[in-house]
Amino acid sequence: MATTLKLEIVTPTGPVYSQAVDMVTLPGQEGELGVLPLHVPLVTVLGDGEIVARHDGQEDRFLVTGGCAEITPERVVVLSVFATDESVLDENKAEDARRRAEARLNEKLSDEEAALVHAALAHSLAQLNKLKRRGAPSHRR
After folding, report:
1. Is residue 82 part of a domain?
2. Domain check: are 16 and 70 in the same one?
3. 82, 79, 80, 85: which is closest to 101 by C-alpha?
């Protein structure tokens, strides 16, 4: 019987995370979804939020902006436009990304470009909010 499952988080720029985990919590569109090894197969749309990967008594956390997940008994694959490891959040970078996204919204954009810019803005705001809630010092340049 499987005691772990493989979690893979992938964005258009490449893999973000790949590790065996004991449990993963995903941000569903209607609430959190907990996944343990041997979960029933499922494909689901994700909301914006936090992925929590639990393994060896610790947690790895990632902020994601939408996407989808394929769940099998042995594996969870998350495809998301943006995924950021919370341990490396940087307030300056997030603030720069927010300013760039807001400036781009004033330009003439195709529907696809506008959707991507809105997602980038939402992701940068989520990072800034997480840093504010955490209250811990952020990485600064």
Report:
1. yes
2. yes
3. 82
Compare 46 and 140 and report the one with higher pLDDT.
Answer: 46
Buried/exposed code over 29-42 (b: 16+ C-beta within 10 A; e: otherwise): eeeebebebebeee
3-state secondary structure of 37: coil
Residue 136 has pLDDT above 70, yes or no: no
User: Which residues, in sequence order, are bridge partners of residue 52?
Assistant: 25, 61
79 and 29 share a domain?
yes
140 part of a folded domain: no
Per the CB < 8 A criterion, the answer to whether 10 and 79 are in contact is yes
The span from the CA of 30 to the CA of 13, in Å, is 27
Pairwise CA distance, residues 139 & 42, whole Å: 37
Above 80 in pLDDT, residue 36? yes
Contact 128/91 with Cβ under 8 angstroms? yes
Number of separate domains in the chain: 2
Model confidence at 137: pLDDT above 80: no
The pTM score is 0.78
Residues 43 and 23 in one domain: yes
Token reading at 57: 């008594």
